[in-house]
Design goal:
By secondary structure, the protein is mainly beta. About 15% of the residues lie in helices and about 40% in strands.
């Protein structure tokens, strides 16, 4: 089943918007890592080889729509002009390239965020990394934090070669003071591994 890409959620709070922007701006920046830019402000992001461009498009909303501006991300082949829609989002989205093969997107809403991985070739469904997906993929010791906290954010922080680096953090009934993990997702193998950031300090 293809994941639902349109996030029908109430508008994000100012605090979450600030966290989203700071996460992108302050993420580690090794020399070989692809950098994330924030949409809709960025407008577009060209692939490293110049063949493709990810660009933002506004969506017209009716009076019955949720308050806020809906946007869409489109992928266009520069030489032919052929385009396909990647996803819709509300508020802001952080976007980066993994070489010339994948487009990485983090979408934000009020209580959560999710990371999406799109194949440029379009030969496979996008990978969705969110709270339910991680609950299924990660070992049992990680699951209570995902299931019992009502605020859980999955954020892509950088891409290096075939590895997507994620920050997973949140708070709620299970972790009143919050939790924070560093995770690595193998784009080719579809495997993920996480560790508690606090245990490394």
């Amino acid at each position: 089943m293809r994941p639902r890409l349109l996030m029908l959620a109430v508008p994000m709070t100012i605090a979450v918007m600030i966290v989203a922007l700071m996460t992108v701006a302050l993420a580690p920046r090794p020399a070989l890592a692809s950098q994330f830019v924030v949409f809709p402000k960025a407008g577009e992001l060209v692939s490293p080889d110049g063949r493709y461009v990810v660009h933002n498009a506004e969506r017209e909303g009716s009076a019955s729509d949720f308050i806020g501006t809906f946007h869409s991300l489109w992928l266009t082949e520069q030489a032919t002009g052929r385009s396909r829609k990647l996803c819709d989002y509300l508020g802001v989205a952080a976007v980066a390239w993994s070489r010339n093969d994948f487009v990485i997107v983090t979408q934000y809403s009020k209580k959560t965020s999710q990371a999406l991985v799109f194949s440029v070739a379009g030969s496979q469904d996008p990978v969705l990394l969110d709270k339910p997906t991680l609950t299924h993929m990660l070992p049992a010791e990680f699951r209570p934090a995902l299931r019992e906290n009502d605020h859980v954010f999955v954020e892509a922080s950088r891409v290096e070669k075939e590895t997507l680096y994620l920050t997973v953090w949140g708070y709620g009934q299970h972790d009143a003071s919050g939790f924070r993990w560093r995770c690595q997702y193998d784009l080719r193998e579809g495997a993920i591994a996480c560790g508690d950031e606090r245990s490394k300090q």
